[in-house]
Specification:
alpha/beta; globular; Rossmann fold
Amino acid sequence: MPVSRETPDPPVAARRVFGSSLPVAIRYAGWLADAGVLRGLLGPREAPRLWERHLVNCALLAEGLGTGEEVADVGSGAGLPGIVLAVCRPDLRLTLIEPLQRRSEFLREVVTDLALDVEVVRARAEELEGQRAFDSVVSRAVAPLPKLLAWCLPLVRPGGQVLAMKGASADRELADARSELRRLQRRLGAGAAEAVRFGADVADPPTTAIRVERSAGRD
């Protein structure tokens, strides 16, 4: 997959977060700007701002993940943030969960082309409840927080976390969901919840996510 002429050169921030994996990230950017746009996984106006808005933004989420964690990306879509995390953090064990066939096919093609050790599962998150468990579950622009947590928390091991990328709306969405979080605490073991920011020294604005722990006492 050649790099599209629509794809800008990677910024300094990309060189910092991807390091020696930058050539793989550039190849993935080519997939997004070409097949990703043609197949409707990414809007055509996104190609010129792929690095700052998508790739660097997702890579910074890696700051919230421990070494060697088993991580699921729920509603992976075009592979954001899951494929980005696999590129910049090869120590992570990534599973991309995506229910739509055309998207899961795209993910498999990209994973094969980039030679990434990543599993692609075509399923809805709720279909995997009781079958799979992860240290962290990540997502980006998938659903409002209460609905997202209802899908993701059952996939998190006790003591693990959900990291939901939310951008500037994170604090407001978290405040609006407080009563629902109390209900999820009783039903699914939702623990502490907070808005967290990653990469303030790398990007402006930094990456913002809502982190929700799963109580260690749940199984």
